[in-house]
Amino acid sequence: MVDTPAVEEPFSPASGRTNPADKNTWFGHPRQLSRLFTTEAMERFGYYGMRALLTLYLTKHFLFSDTTTTGLYGGFTALVYLTPLIGGFIADRYLGSKRSVKFGAIMMAVGYFVLCFGGDTAKPHAVIDGQRYEVQVENFIDRPTSTGEEVRYVTTGSERLKIKGNDDGSVDLLRADNSVARNLPKGSFEPGADRNSLFVFLMLIGLSLVTVGNGFFKPNISTIVGSLYAQGDRRRDAGFTIFYMGINLGSFFSQLLCPFLADNVGWWAGFGLAAGGMLLAAALFQFDGGRLDGYGERPEGADPSRDLLIYGCAILAVPAVYFLFTNLMNATAAEPGSGIVGYVMSLPLMGQVLFLTFLISIPGILAWSFFKGSRQEFQMMLAAMVLIVFNVVFWTLFEQAGSSLTLFADRNTDLHITSNWSISAGQTQSFNAIFIVLLAPLFSILWNGLARRGLEPPIPIKFGLALVGVGLGFLFLVWGSQFAGSDFKVGIWWLAGLYFIHSVAELMISPVGLSMITKLSIARVVGLMMGVWFLSISVAQYVAGAVAQVASVETVGGQVTNLQVSLNTYLHVFTIIGEWAVGFGVVLLLLSWPLKYLMHGVK
Questions:
Q1: DSSP assignment, residue 157?
Q2: What is the DSSP string of 89-129?
Q3: CB 108 within 8 A of CB 217
Q4: Contact at 8 Å (CB) between 517 and 525?
């Protein structure tokens, strides 16, 4: 999972105080690390618990279409990785990391609590040849996990007809004896739903609060971890390894527990547990017993009287984010034949800003490097930009986990671990976290062992192997689909295999990304390059939503009308992106030799 730290600041002790890294250690590290580790684990517990439910919540409770759901999910996660740029800047100039983390934690906790108020389930309907009909659902339970026994009907005249989708996109309306009463050609059956506008508003406000709060929290707690260590302290990398273990432990437990509560109690309980985790994170940080005194304090010369203004502006940013979400949900497709310009102009405002900023920043920074830097500096910056572009491709495909892969798990995966024990679709996201926890120490041993022998692969090869790996993960799942049963569901272990391969790929690319940027960037613009790195991840999240939209399946009342069509649609998209990912990875592996030259010995 993508959780990249901010640039670490060197230790800066308060007047008359020695570096606490020299005494009172916790597993050989500053004792403050234990408090930061637990705080981060609980914050990630809240975020990933919410994320495990979000896609299912939108499709099953609010009955949004797959296209709307995955688009909104992609936009939300894109902003989650974009707002830290602003939050980090505000902390560096005005608030300091500690105040920023506290404020962000409170905003996120409030956001999760707001998500608990979802109201009644949306009411499904269908428009047939311009006439609206109510849809009745038998055996429906408003929970993340479907029972498989839900049946959807429309009443036309005196007949109550069951809805069944066909392979060619048409819809059959079936009588009680399963004879076809009416066949509706593709496009003549339009599913929809009536939603309470107040609860849709609350849901979007909740996501907006989480987005803004995350911008204050995410970059700054990592900065405080970096400040625990004096410049050159060899324990720093190991300290960050321990710290980021908290991310995966927190996410693993939340992705099991939040969906469990949502299934057995209600959506509100799942989101409420996420909120509880976030509140605990805030409490751990607020009531630290003085352990963090002197760390992450307000920068020298900053005016405390500006704090309330900053907090007020952050709260005012919530309606702005809400507007971006509504604009995203109401976007229309480009006219056929309008080309790339028409496509970009038809994008929601968020997409236009992200793409134009990314497309301008890459050549702009390279042009500046060419004219202002030395020949070697320009070449190193060129290598960094090439890797950033491939980084977008990797995370675009890897981040299908929370969208298309979760919907695939719900609709076309047999979720039984054993004959008597099954998990829910939301809980399948925990596979990645547990594999990272298990594999990360092994990879650390592997890289260290290869480095001692001078055999550790250079960064471009690691990136290339990661791209090949993410593609092979999708192709592995596609291959396993040939063993799907008559219910058009694939065994869960094939999906677990995909997450295992993706976790291996993640460990190839995620730990080296920020390090690569700091080493290849011209010192005068390293902060700007860090911004471009986070921007690339944000763009990837947005594009991931667009890719998931391609895998959209028609639903009525939150359920697909034909499981065979659903399976074929997902496998078609997974095959394409899997093959393209392997192709991109091979291209990068071929480019690794010229890139190695351009990097001038950076490893």
A1: T
A2: HHIIIII-HHHHHHHHHHHHHHHHHHHT---SPPEEEEEET
A3: yes
A4: no
Angle CA(536)–CA(114)–CA(95) in degrees, nearest 5?
A: 55
Task: Check whether residue 420 and residue 550 sit in a common domain.
Answer: yes
How many distinct structural domains can be found in the chain? 3
Question: Coil, helix or strand for 15?
Answer: coil
Q: How many residues does the chain have?
A: 603
Report residues of the chain scoring pLDDT below 70: 1-23, 231-232, 237-238, 333-344, 514, 527
Question: What's the alpha-carbon Rg for the chain, to the nearest Å?
Answer: 25
CA distance 572 to 6: 38
Q: Where are the alpha helices (DSSP H) in 333-458?
A: 339-346, 349-372, 375-398, 404-412, 430-452
Contacts of residue 223, Cβ cutoff 8 Å, sequence gap at least 6: 5, 6, 7, 8, 9, 88, 91, 97, 296
Among residues 140, 173, 194, the one where a domain terminates is 194
| Residues 125, 118: Cα–Cα separation, whole Å | 19
Q: Clarify whether residues 155 and 171 are in a common domain.
A: yes
The answer to the question of residue 143 being in a domain is yes
Return the bridge partners of 135, or none.
154
Domain that holds residue 172: 123-194
Whether residue 481 sits in one domain with residue 595: yes
Residue 52 amino acid letter? A
Q: Which residues does 196 contact at the CB level (< 8 Å), separation at least 6?
A: 119, 120, 122
DSSP reduced 3-state for 491? strand
Gap between the Cα atoms of 188 and 170, Å rounded: 8
What is residue 338's predicted lDDT score, i.e. its pLDDT? Answer: 58
Q: Quote the tokens at residue 465.
A: 């192997």
Closest CA to 550 of 390, 354, 407, 426: 407
Helices 97-115 and 197-227, interaxial angle, to 10°? 150
CB 30 within 8 A of CB 248: no
Structure-block tokens of residue 275: 């909120």
Of 363, 353, 352, the C-alpha closest to 389 is 363
Residue of 191, 374, 371, 222 lying closest to 296 (CA atoms): 222
Q: Each residue of 246-302: pLDDT tens digit?
A: 888 899 999 999 999 999 999 999 999 999 999 999 898 888 777 778 888 888 888
Q: What's the CA gap between 147 and 145, in Å, rounded?
A: 7
Does the predicted model carry a pTM greater than 0.85? yes
Which CATH number do you get for residue 79?
A: 1.20.1250.20
- Of 76, 424, 47, whose CA–CA distance to 251 is shortest? 47
Would residue 345 count as lying in a domain? no
**C-alpha span between 298 and 550 (Å, rounded):** 46
Of 231, 318, 291, nearest to 98 by C-alpha is 291
What is the rounded CA–CA span in Å between residue 591 and residue 385?
13
Q: How many CB atoms lie within 10 A of CB 161?
A: 20
Whether residue 143 sits in one domain with residue 216: no
Which domain-ending residue is among 194, 219, 250?
A: 194
